[in-house]
Amino acid sequence: xxxxxxxxxxxxxxxxxxxxxxxxxxxxxxxxxxxxxxxxxxxxxxxxxxxxxxxxxxxxxxxxxxxxxxxxxxxxxxxxxxxxxxxxxxxxxxxxxxxxxxxxxxxxxxxxxxxxxxxxxxxxxxxxxxxxxxxxxxxxxxxxxxxxxxxxxxxxxxxxxxxxxxxxxxxxxxxxxxxxxxxxxxxxxxxxxxxxxxxxxxxxxxxxxxxxxxxxxxxxxxxxxxxxxxxxxxxxxxxxxxxxxxxxxxxxxxxxxxxxxxxxxxxxxx
Length: 270
Known about the structure:
Blueprint: E1 7-9, H1 14-20, E2 26-29, H2 35-40, E3 48-51, E4 61-64, E5 67-71, H3 76-80, H4 85-88, H5 90-95, H6 102-107, H7 110-116, H8 122-129, E6 133-138, E7 141-146, E8 151-153, E9 156-157, E10 164-171, E11 178-184, E12 194-201, E13 205-211, E14 218-222, H9 228-234, H10 245-269
Parallel strand pairs: 1-3, 2-3
Antiparallel strand pairs: 4-5, 5-10, 6-7, 6-10, 8-9, 11-12, 12-13, 13-14
C-alpha cells in the first residue's frame, strides 16, 4: 500500500516546526523507522508531516548537572557508539543493541522511539526505569514529564496537541550502581516477547521494569524483601500469534530473576 495524501514540510527552525505542529493532524517525522511503515499501511494518516531533519539543536549529546542530555533527534546508533556511554548510562548501553537492527538504529532517533510509545520499546522502558526527564516544547512554552509518567497506553503519551519531545535528560550512573537488561524475541531485531531492565542502588533502592507484558512499560520499586512472585502475579500480558500470555509470564519470571542477579553482582563488584 501507499500512504494517504499528506502535506510535507521541512522547517529549518524549531519555532517554525512547533508552529506547524499546531495544525490539525500534524505529525513530526524524526527517523521515520516506525511512522513511515505505519503510514504505508495507512495505520497512520497525518494531514501534515513535519520533517525535523533540518531543525538545529535537536541532535546534541552533552553531560550537564549530573545528567546526560540527549536531543530528541540523536540517532540511536550515534548514542550506541558513544565511548563513555557504558559508564554514563549502563542500562541504555545494554538496551540499545536490542533496538531493531543496526540499519534501523542508523536512522532511528532516541526521541522518536520514546515518543512512539510502543509497549515493546527498549528505550521507553529504560527512560521509565531510570525516571529520565522528558522535555516537551510547544509554541506556547516548555514543560518536563517524568519518564515513568510518559506512556499512557499503546502509542499514547502524555504529550499534548502541538507538543514535541525535544530532549531526554538521563541521570548519570553512580559508583556502586548495578544494571542489567535482557529480552527475548523470536529473532534478533523482532519486537520483544518480553524484556526486563533492572537498576540496583545498594542500600537505597531496586527498580525493575518490564516490556511486552502490558499496554505500557511496567515499572516497580522492590523492597529488599520484595518477592518476584507478587509482581509476576499482577502482570496481564496478552496472547497473540507470537506467544501466549502464559509463555510471556514465564519469560517475565525467568528474566526478572536473571537480571536482578546480574545487577546485584555488578553492584557488588563496584
